[in-house]
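Structure ticket #2291
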Amino acid sequence: MRVFDAKDPGFDDAFADFLDERRGSPADVDAAVREIVDQVRAEGLEAVLRLTRRFDRAELDETTIRVSAEEIEAGAAACAPEVRAALELAARRIRSYHDRQRPADLSFVDDAGARLGWRWTPLESVGVYVPGGRAAYPSSLLMNAVPAAVAGVDRIAMVTPPGRLEPAVLAAAQIAGVSEIWRVGGAQAVAALAYGAGPIRPVDKIVGPGNAYVSAAKRQVYGVVGIDALAGPSEIVVVADDANDPAWIAADLMSQAEHDPDAQAILITDDEAFAEAVTRAVDVLLQQLATSDVAARSWRRHGAVVIAPMHLAAALVDRIAPEHVELALEDPGAMAGRIRHAGAIFLGRHTPEAIGDYVAGSNHVLPTSRAARFSSGLSVHDFLKRTSIVECSPEAFAALGPPTVVLAEAEGLPAHAHSAAIRLGRG
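Resolution: structure written out below.
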């Protein structure tokens, strides 16, 4: 963990170097992924089954690669009742939040008499990647699948590595409206969703988190299908004054550090004594967490404490452009209005980021690695397409046709010009 003081003469350069450090940069996997994607594209299911034997040591065939309805029902029924209830609550809130994001169709007549507008239509099919093992989070499945269902996507296909399917994940799949589940993971799962593989039909867009191989595969199939984003390690910035309980702030910082050794947690405060109290509280908490090994490595390698006046905090947050920002302040709204770059902002002392991960209703799939400068979190808009509508009456065309001819001729496109001119009686 590093400490930066805004009063130090070299602060700007040292903090910039810190932010430029790469986190979670694996060895180059592009060549290996390209080979996997090419095999699936050329051979379909045969390649998927072969690669699954090789990487997952699972022997599957065309009949066993799909998780049956009976397996889903039995697995979901094994979900603990309190977990199922929490998932249903989360899904209701996610559904309600995203339903309010629905954009409206529009049609209007402009001053030339042309009718213009747009309409929104859902994607036909979406693939959701769900990691296996410890990273098989049912909350992430809800965050990816529920907005797709709200948008009206007809088919939601889930892929996940072979192995035991967690009851909570199967319950989340049921609740979210997942159409089908396939036992395939890694780059081969992404390729199967993009190109199709036997009974796995191709989709229009692929969403969901994964490891470096999954991210590389998503990047390589982009253009054949849409993708959500290329997610990096988790991030949190907590802006806090000395009126907070240091133990609360320490818990908030570790809530992201425990995700990944490459996650990043940063505290910004104007009080040096409070900063020291928080770091002591982190040390105490790390003695208690079952995830302390991961969290400690994250905090040691990528954590930071920034001592700076509160009037500089919003600008510092914008420099970081983090995935999550907590404003644990008396008047958090005033600072929030000055922050431009953040995936999600959590206001006040009683709004920990963990609420957003689970039951707030907002989406927890957010831009990382400073991508909040130019992108947003997952939303219902990611599962909709906007189509422009144009209609010219004879009178409107009489007004708009001549400048169309002029511009087409200026661009050296005679067929374009002729297409308009012939309707003007000039052909």
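Closing remark: The longest strand covers residues 115-122.
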